[in-house]
Amino acid sequence: MEDQWEELIEKKSISYVKSGPEPGFYKLGSKEILGYSMVDFSMNLVFQTIMMFLTFYYTDVFELRVTDITIIFLVARIWDTINDPIMGTIVERLNLKSGKYKPYILYGAIPFGIMAVLTYTIPTSFSYMGKLIWAFCTYNGLNMMYTFIIQPYAAAATVMTADPSERTKLNSIRMMFAQSGGVIVALAIPTLSRHFGGTSIARGYQITVALLSIVMVIILMYATTTIKEKIKVNSHLDKIGLKDVIYQFTHNQPVIVLFLLFMGVYGFSTIQSAAGVYYMTYNAGRPELVGLFSLMNVLPSVFGVPFVPMLVRKIKKKNTVILGLLIGALGTVLLWFVPITSVFLMMFTRGIASFGYGILMGILWSIIPDAVEYAEYNTGKRYTTIVYTLIGLGLKGSLTIGGVIPTVILSAVKYVPNQVQTAKSLMGIRFMTSLLPCLVCIITIVIFGLWYNLTEEKVAMIMHELAVRNGTLEMDN
Prior knowledge:
Layout: H1 2-12, H2 30-61, H3 66-93, H4 103-119, H5 128-160, H6 164-197, H7 201-223, H8 242-251, H9 253-283, H10 290-304, H11 308-336, H12 343-379, H13 384-412, H14 423-433, H15 435-451, H16 456-470, H17 472-476
């Protein structure tokens, strides 16, 4: 059976263009890159609604108490630490006929869309406790379906090519599309929810999210046809279990550091997104500009992503990450000093932070394959989805930072929805919109700068050693 597989791969490889002599170094075609990137574009049509608007939706539209929202977010993150590694283990243990990773994108598309609509649906006939349970179940269901798709999707990049340059290009373009999805959400939610909702903003949110979900499902179904898994993965033969997950999270330093990096980067963005709606509504007193302010949180990031391949060539991956964090910190701290009457300066400083975030999005996901190679180098097993899962928990953790911390602050300053806010409340909103995300960036810079040690040279050495160890170097040459 093994010989038949190798013969099949050899025949298929005739149509694959090599990007170098090393094993697995394939050049990615335009259709592959576009299709792969469209997955993240469509996923962000839903995911960005969580990052940008869900906290505000829960407090001001769903009318849940701030303390209850905090509990929902906290319990959801606790469940993620159980659910996500289980999902990663399942993906590695299975080897479906239609592919190792891409089938999950197709199978998860419709359920993910349904859960998005249910999350933004308010059962008006329910009691307060009933609505609270509904919010808890739908939010957790949405997160579980996101995990079902995003883990194998991200891991699919490692079997499309092993060439670090091609991977960087793929992930840079992918994240440019992902941020473009955020641009659409920033425009669609404030604008279309008012248009479709009329006097019922809740109905407006529901219809808008439903439309975004339909578009997402259609794109996901098409995009799966463009992804080509060229590199064989034998993880289903390794009998990966819980002990392997725990070992990676306790012994693989790059995984631990990247977990914290993801938590910091996405936490920085999530806090900004969640706080921005409150800031424009109450501090600036310009609720009609919420859409524009949200747009400036994502649009400049689209233009930051294309700089990443050049920056990686010039200053390497690690310094590119630090540069993005520094720009993000600068943009957020400047907002603290902007008068609330200066709309232009508000948008400008928001744009600076967003540009830095774009650089981070362009580089972040292209670093994870390095940790995958490091894991195989140390253990002899290829833990692709496990590594992506553990690092991806940092993204889920950022939802705690971006969801729980703002709600804790709002509770502490006695925030009351849909009312004129006290000076204390306004100061709390201002802090969590500017100084708090800046602080997150600075802490992340320190952690990543001191403890991340996978240089390009070290990764190249590891990949060469793996090729020799697996006997693939001589085969390809």
